[in-house]
Amino acid sequence: MEPSQQQEQQTHTLGDDSSEPLPQSDDHGRERFRIVTENVTVLFDGKAAIRNVSIAIRTNKVTAIIGPSGCGKSTFLRALNRLHDIQPNARVEGRILLDGEDITTLDATLVRRRIGMVFQKPNPFPAMSIFDNVVAGLRFNGIRKRSLLEEIAEEALRRAALWDEVKDRLRAPATSLSGGQQQRLCIARALAIEPEVLLMDEPTSALDPIATAKIEELIYELKRTYTIVIVTHNMQQAARVSDWTAFMYLGELIEFDKTRKIFTNPSKRQTEEYITGRFG
Amino acid sequence: MIERRLQPSPWVEYRRRIVNALGHGVVALATVVVLFPLIAVIWYTLREGIPGLTWDFFTQLPKPVGEVGGGMANAIVGSGIVVGLASLVAIPLGILAGIFISEYASARLAAAIRFVTEVMLGLPSILLGIFAYAVVVKPIGHFSAYAGAAALAIVMLPIVIKTTEEILRLVPRHIREAGLALGIPQWVVVLRIILRAASRGIVTGILLAVARAAGETAPLLFTALNNRFWHTTLDQPIATLPVQIFTYAVAPYEDWHRQAWAGALVLIGLVLVLSIVLRLVVSRTHFEHEQ
Predict the structure, then answer these.
(1) E strands of A169-279, at which residues?
(2) pLDDT tens, position by position, A46-66
(3) Domain ranges in chain B?
(4) So what's the pLDDT on residue A28?
């Protein structure tokens, strides 16, 4: 897909070091940017929660979004897979390009199949087994072939590093798993529909340190295949898992750069103050 | 040193314990008072009803006035048919309406429908009987099982709507979002995920409605009437347990009183059996639903 001219201008004003026009694909000919947002504004009841967020999310990289509570991190993330659609009082403005296509003009359910999401609290479907949870996205979209479902379920559970723990009890209720396992189940469920992008909204904030470490390892593994955007409250986590970091404050994108740069030599005063713990 | 203004005094402590014990006593007493009528009704029905539970009671038609014996076979079957027909209409309609209010209606419309449902819940059932009489019996020209079922369906509808809607609203929003985020269309999320998560609660609402309908007498007096014989079509008056119990209970015969008690016991028993079976079915389908 050919990214538009406008997209090109938009992206190279963002934190990349080079002042040269950005190459649109990497050495392997893949799209360099999976998602590009242009002036995304989200309004609730006419009041802007985030304003003019423009960001370019790189393919097969982990992009972290940090910032104090209420700065609009989750609001931005939810805009990326059209979850605001279900709230009648929410309005999204601006363009969100997925592989060069504006997702606001596409069918929301189709967008969500390409951009998966993992939520803050593990939310397996109640009254369903582990297996039924993993294949829910496939089965309820019309895939009925048992052998195919089983194959994909195993693959997704392996990718989510949960297979060994649950392979003998796939029929057990999903709610019988521990919190950390439930979250990995939710990741497997999101991976089963084979999305291009995985959005994670504070995926470890409800988990203990051991489960958190597992999820972080997993994120590291997953970025080979997927493009990941993670919202986190935990700055160490952002520093550990991400390649790029966006800092948001009061609904605006303050700074977006390589994670190392953000955490060692941020160019904005607000970023530095937040990173060093002077506010937020 | 900090001067403590809250001085612990033995008297305050003593008084606190007395008040606590008193509070406990009042709450326990209230529970007993509330439970007493329930237990008394069941115990009394068992005591009076068991002697009447003979083989004949379940298999025979009522005997003509003056003859001893006979049973309520036609009324037991009749109740099943009328309540069954009413359920066939009221349960799907009620669940769909509940889904609409909880998942699709705007806040304002939902509030309006909720209000109407609550008003319907408060209507005396005899009024619903008269309504069904005017709308179904009068135009057709005679009493029928259909008319009885229509009246009972109106009794059941608001109960099913209200419980479905309330239970669906208890399913957390993040479950809906999880479904939508998998690219599942909203109607599939509602039917396959939300409804399933809420199935226990919805079954409770259905049972409540069925139990209420099974015990209704007044609406049937105007619609299904009664029948001392087997009905041959649903277009005729039909015997039902509550109406038969009512007829027998106000009659001056010892034997009929005994049968009325037995009928009441059977009514309670049927509702109980139904609720146990439904609950078993639901808890089973929860996890073994996919082959």
Answers:
(1) 197-201, 227-231, 244-249, 252-258
(2) 999 999 999 999 999 999 999
(3) 10-52, 57-288
(4) 54
What does the block give as tokens for B118? 């609550």
| Domains of chain A in sequence order | 5-120+196-275 (3.40.50.300)
**A125/B183 CB distance under 8 A:** no
| A44, two tokens | 């609730």
CATH of domain B57-288: 1.10.3720.10
- For B78: left if phi > 0, alpha if psi spans -120 to 50, otherwise beta; the answer is alpha
Kindly tell me the sign of the dihedral angle through the C-alpha atoms of B46, B50, B52, B58: positive
Contacts of residue A115, defined as CB under 8 A and 6 or more positions apart, other chains included, come to A35, A80, A81, A98, A103, A195, A196, A197, A198, A199
Q: Say if A185 is an interface residue toward chain B (CB within 8 Å).
A: no
Q: Which residues of A touch B171 (CB under 8 A)?
A: 126
- Secondary structure of residue A31 in the 3-state scheme: strand
Check CB contact under 8 Å for B199 and A186: no
Q: Is A186 on the interface with B (CB under 8 A)?
A: yes
Query: B197 and A126: CB-CB below 8 Å?
Result: yes
Q: What is the ipTM of this complex?
A: 0.83
| Residue A189 forms contact with B (CB below 8 Å) | yes
Q: Tell me the one-letter amino acid at B51.
A: P
